[in-house]
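Structural prep section.
Before we set up the soaks we want a predicted structure of the protein with zinc ion in place, mainly to decide which crystallisation condition to try first. Input record follows.
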Amino acid sequence: MRLDSRLLLAISLLASLAACTSARPIVFSRTESVPALNSDRHVIVISIDGLRPDAIQRFDAPTLQRLVREGRFSLTAQTIHPSVTLPSHASMMTGVDPDQHGITWNDNRVATRGRVRVPTMLATAHQHGLRTAAVVSKGKFNHLLEPGSVDHFVVPEGDGSWSSDSTVEWVEDVLIADRPNLLFVHLPEPDRYGHLFGWMGYFYGWAVAESDGAVGEILASADEAFGRDGYTVILSADHGGHDRDHGTDDPRSMTIPWIAWGRRVAPAGELTCEIHTMSTAATALWLLGVPIPESYVGQPVLDAFEPVVEPGR
Ligand SMILES: [Zn+2]
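Run finished without errors. Recording the tokens verbatim:
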């Protein structure tokens, strides 16, 4: 059997992971070749777990501030209630509320509850022949990614987790070797340190800096893979937090950043339209030229982008 480049990539990724983390990954890779719908379009959705929008300025995060300065942004976007990681990311990635996607718990119950019951944006893009990938830092994301709907999926096993350093290493390899049209990345630190030491405190600020550095490394790899103007980034969060927790309808938990940056993004400025986490999936599909499913609650944030004659161009 011929060892193709993807198999070699998987082997090399597994080898590199063994050196950088103790959490064993699950890696799914595509085996068949599907013609791409629009192979020149690339969208990267980055979710920073527990990032409050006011943390970007408070902790002087240089990369996030650059995205705000150069992109179109909202610091008043809203997540779903309950404002917790797995249901919120399910809404971010499926474009629907929890009563439609069905994920109301916040740990890995794949063995007993199965995976998400509606397609994620990755699955929908994949159905249209686009290359899709996801690199996440928590094992509970196994609920959101059906094997076969994502060309390259790297996730901790069980309920494991790893740091953004490990995530970035995987992202760099996937970007260069796989050149996905749609890539989802999840970075974990602000949530982790918020729970341990409190939101907006010293260690939370350190975690924001870690995430900021990770985003910078992802952008550098994306520049290399697609060219500086060859891709669009949507950066957001699943929830905020206060004290040492989140999950309620407190505005400090419900309010999230939403930033569009890069290709096709309109001249810099603050978005005044209503944005919620379901807007992310709709916007990503719209950018890729994929029809938005009728079931979507979320709509594309058109105000963030240059006016176009043909949708998706
Ligand atoms: Zn979270």
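Observations: Strands lie at 25-29, 43-48, 72-78, 132-135, 152-156, 182-187, 232-236, 255-262, 269-270.
Flagged for discussion at group meeting.
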